[in-house]
Amino acid sequence: MMPDQYFQMTNKETLTLPKSALIAFLTLSTAMTASAFAQEAPAAPAATTPAAPAEAAPAATEMTPEQIAAFNTAVTDFTAGQSAQQSGDNATAVAKYEAAIPAIKTAVESDPSKMDNVNFLANALYANAAAYGAMGQLDKTIALYGESLPHWRKVVEAKPTDAASRNILAGILIQMGNQKLGAQDKAGSAPLYSEALTLARKSVAENASDNISKNILLSALIGASQSTSDTALQAEAVEMSKKMLADGSVDATNKPSAQALTGAPQAG
């Protein structure tokens, strides 16, 4: 854990926030592949509501000493949750994250413009989703992904050069798209994959040698190619699969889907 950063409040109480709460569970973020859900031929999507544009933030309200104390306790709980999660004790991690999240939400509600707190909330929800996912409770994972989504969008908008946050957001969108695709909701999955594609393309454009970004882009392409009738996307998914299989950069999660798309032999 990195050193704490302190934020002085107007009532002289001290609000403590981890300087870095970013948790890069990108393996989990791409763990549920589109191919595991998609069973039918692609269909054209219906129009759905895009991500809402950012609105003017409401005026900040001063946190009470009790709320600040609760927030500082939440930092301790979050840190304990990270330690438990890293040791494989996901049940304890969930308990610690769920103890921490209400106070972090209060801090965000009191001042939605304070991006440190928004980032902290996004990460706490994401970490909780990861812990539930490790325990096989994927319904809770997807619900937490959905709850974290607007916060991650704000973080990525505020930090356009932060590739790690951008990739986490893309991974979340892909998993939510996969869940809808698994329920044969192609119309609902298509805009999620489309948003993920935009983010992943930016990451790959910035660093074409980064295998994490390339695999996130491939995951988005595989999902998008199954949720729409866009032949250009389908061809791009096949071509990228061929290249990544050839150079060995495809990860274990994407490899079966890439092999299926290209007709490459799969291990028995």
Automatic annotation (TrEMBL):
Annotated segments matching region Disordered: 249-268
Composition bias, Polar residues: 251-260
InterPro entries: TPR-like_helical_dom_sf (IPR011990)
SUPFAM superfamilies, per database record: TPR-like
First and last residue of the signal peptide: 1-38
Source organism superkingdom: Bacteria
Keyword tags: Signal
Keyword Membrane: no
The protein's name in its UniProt record: Tetratricopeptide (TPR) repeat protein
Lineage: Bacteria, Pseudomonadati, Pseudomonadota, Alphaproteobacteria, Sphingomonadales
